[in-house]
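User: Good morning. I'm curious how adenosine monophosphate would be positioned relative to this chain. Could you predict the structure with it bound?
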Amino acid sequence: MMLREILQNKGRIVYSIPAHASLADVAAKLVEHNVGSLVVCERDGRLVGIITERDILRACADRHERLEDKTVERHMTTDLVLGSPQDDVETIMGLMTEHRIRHVPVLDDGRLVGMISIGDIVKSQYEQLTRENHYLMSYIQS
Ligand code: AMP
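Assistant: Good morning! Here's the predicted structure, ligand included:
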């Protein structure tokens, strides 16, 4: 299955936050939208980074500063691993495993068209296994 098909079902909404926002803003937005990551975009919409719940956890463990005083800019990851709508699920599973990440922004022709999380990958694999199991059971019983 390709990422395009997952995004067709899931939708293409990607939540974002500006680089000058605080980590307290990030935490509030993650909770508000029930997601684990936000992309960081410039004023012109250019994608410059990603910040996830893992980054918030790391920042919480460092008790020197309050989340309100820590900026996205200082805690985001800028060296991005990206996907394209034509990528298949297996490729993205490999990337997530290799880089130890659970979120992959999807770009089409340089334009952000969605976000794939590890939960989306598990869901798609589960559905495929259930389908295959169903067909095999019908085949065996017929
Ligand atoms: P995650 O497991 O996705 O919560 O993220 C683990 C770490 O990897 C965090 O420091 C994120 O900022 C970073 N990260 C998450 N997704 C990506 C990605 N697609 N490209 C680069 N870094 C990422």
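The chain has a mean pLDDT of 96. The helical segments are 3-10, 23-33, 53-61, 72-75, 89-99, 118-141.
Let me know if you'd like a different ligand tried.
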